[in-house]
Amino acid sequence: MGSEPSPSPAPTPLESYYAAIEDLARKIVKLGGFRLEVKLRHLEPVDEHSPATIVDFSGPDAGLLLEAHGELLNAIEYVVLRAVRLEESLFPKISFDCEDYRHMRVEELKLMAQVAADRVRDTGMPFPLGPMNARERRIIHLALNNRPEVRTESDGQGPERKVVIHPASSPARR
Q: What dotted CATH number matches 15-99?
């Protein structure tokens, strides 16, 4: 008797969305008349909070996606993930990027969080950061998770929602 090939492992919940995500992203690029390539890049996650997959855009029109702090890139990500009905719990596991913009922004936010936390530690005064989307606020909260001398809170509504860094000794808002 010959040996049967072992069945390939079942796809993870995120993997079952890959084809639909890539297909819809390509359709948006084509219908929008953008000169862009779309490629899925799979990463070895650094931690449980880092993305496992990047939907990467590149090409002559890349700058259009990055104008106004990547608003068009954010909009495409939002539309695609909602349209394919990706479970919200999986949103942090996939990221749309263009010319490493998101990667550089994450590093910038982590550095900003550390500098602001140092200021709060030194002055004892709360420090509000500017308005950010939910993904960016999450990066700030996680970046300061290991700083026991400060705590973070999100404050505000809608597009004006921001992170405020407080001394750990100050009472939390209820």
A: 3.30.300.20
